Amino acid sequence: MDKIKVIITNKQKDVKIPTGLRMLIRRCCNAVLKMEKFEGSVEVSVTLVNNKQIRELNSIYRNIDRVTDVLSFPMGENGKYDTDPTNGAKILGDIVISMETAIEQADRFGHSLQREVGYLTAHSMLHLLGYDHEDNGIQRIRMREKEEKVMTLLGLPSSSSYVMDGE
Question: At 19, which CATH number?
Answer without folding.
Answer: 3.40.390.30
